[in-house]
């Protein structure tokens, strides 16, 4: 006969099928995802957007200002909400409980403004330039593969530069001979 033990308070008990786990003393923030908590996903999204917009305005945000804007009390509930937003990779920040501040290092940009469009345009231009150079190189390789006895334009340019360099060296030697006489 097998001995069956009752589950411990600290043992994780899986939730019934179809229900999200409710945080207990046995669970930690790393055991749950930000949306597994008792309030709805829509409320969390609204709170996350509000927090992100506050982080976009300032690098250091007072916890009491965050609590007021989110409609939460300063304490565990506010810290849990901030931690969920951090775990959702919407912001990178550190909570300073002594000073009552949230130090923001990075935040997810909610809007795509003119500056982001210009940066994207420059990045695309650079990538297209690199792609054009690569395409030329591939075409030269294919051309040389079909006609191995002919050098590609790139090799001809290198040969021309080498020949011009040799001519300059010969002129320098002639000039040195004249100056020595």
From TrEMBL:
Residues 38-127 form the PCI domain. GO terms for biological process: cytoplasmic translational initiation. SMART domains: PINT. One of its GO terms (cellular component) is eukaryotic translation initiation factor 3 complex. It holds the Pfam family PCI. PANTHER family: COP9 SIGNALOSOME COMPLEX SUBUNIT 7/DENDRITIC CELL PROTEIN GA17 (PTHR15350), EUKARYOTIC TRANSLATION INITIATION FACTOR 3 SUBUNIT M (PTHR15350:SF2). This is PCI domain-containing protein.
């Amino acid at each position: 006969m097998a001995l069956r033990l009752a589950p411990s308070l600290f043992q994780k008990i899986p939730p019934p099928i179809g229900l999200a786990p409710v945080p207990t003393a046995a669970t930690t923030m790393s055991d749950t995802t930000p949306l597994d908590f008792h309030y709805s996903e829509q409320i969390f999204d609204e709170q996350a957007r509000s927090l992100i917009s506050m982080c976009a305005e300032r690098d250091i945000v007072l916890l009491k200002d965050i609590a007021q804007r989110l409609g939460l009390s300063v304490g565990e509930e506010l810290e849990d909400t901030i931690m969920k937003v951090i775990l959702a990779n919407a912001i990178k920040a550190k909570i300073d409980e002594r000073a009552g501040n949230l130090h923001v290092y990075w935040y997810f940009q909610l809007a795509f403004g003119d500056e982001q469009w210009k940066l994207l345009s420059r990045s695309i231009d650079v990538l297209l330039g690199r792609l054009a150079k690569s395409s030329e190189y591939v075409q030269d390789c294919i051309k040389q593969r079909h006609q191995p006895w002919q050098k590609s334009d790139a090799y001809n340019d290198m040969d021309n530069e080498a020949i011009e360099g040799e001519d300059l060296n010969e002129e320098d030697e002639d000039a040195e001979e004249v100056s020595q006489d």
